[in-house]
Write a structure and sequence with these properties.
Length: 161
C-alpha cells in the first residue's frame, strides 16, 4: 500500500546528560517498542565526552554539531544495514531547528548514499504528548544536553540580568 513503510527504530543519543537521563530515555523507548512490536537497534555508545569536545567554545551552535553527530551515525548504520532511508524523531518537536536538521540530513545522505526522509511531523506533536501521558511514559524536560539542562534551571534567574 502506498505510504506505508517498514520502520526500524535506532537509539543513539551521545548528547544526553546526565547518564541517568540517558538511561531513562532508553528504557522508555525499549518498553514502548516492545509494546507495539517495533524493532529498535540500540547503540549503547555513550559518547558524552565526544559531544562536549565538539561543542566547547561553540556552545551557541551546539545543536548543529549534535544533529550532525546523531544523523551521521544514523545514516552510517542505515547504509551498513541496507536501509533505503533514514529520518529522525527530532522532526516531531516544535522546539528543534527543522531547517538545520533537513540541511544536515541531506548532506549526510549525499555522503552515505542513503536518502534522508524529511517530513514535518510537528502537527502530530500534541497528540503524541497526550498519548505518552495516557501511557504514563517518562517524559523528558529538556532536549538532553548539559547546556539545555542548565538553561532549564537558569532561564528564569538570568532573565533580569
Amino acid at each position: 500500500m502506498k505510504g506505508e513503510a517498514d520502520v526500524t527504530g535506532y537509539f543513539f543519543n551521545p548528547n544526553i546528560h546526565p547518564y541517568t537521563e540517558w538511561r531513562a530515555r532508553r528504557e522508555t523507548l525499549a518498553s514502548y517498542a516492545r509494546s507495539i512490536e517495533l524493532p529498535v537497534m540500540f547503540d549503547d555508545d555513550y559518547l558524552l565526552e565526544e559531544f562536549i569536545r565538539g561543542v566547547v567554545n561553540r556552545e551557541s551552535d551546539r545543536c548543529s554539531f549534535c544533529y550532525a553527530m546523531r544523523l551521521g551515525r544514523t545514516a552510517e548504520v542505515a547504509a551498513r544495514e541496507g536501509f533505503d532511508s533514514f529520518s529522525s524523531t527530532l522532526l516531531v518537536s516544535p522546539y528543534q531547528k527543522h531547517d538545520q536538521i533537513r540541511e544536515i540530513g541531506e548532506a549526510v545522505a549525499a555522503e552515505t548514499g542513503v536518502s534522508f526522509h524529511y517530513r514535518d511531523f510537528r502537527p502530530g506533536y500534541r497528540g503524541a504528548v497526550e498519548r505518552s501521558r495516557e501511557l504514563e511514559m517518562y517524559r523528558q524536560k529538556y532536549c538532553g544536553c548539559i547546556y539545555s539542562e542548565k538553561e532549564r534551571y537558569c532561564r528564569k534567574k538570568n532573565r533580569g540580568s
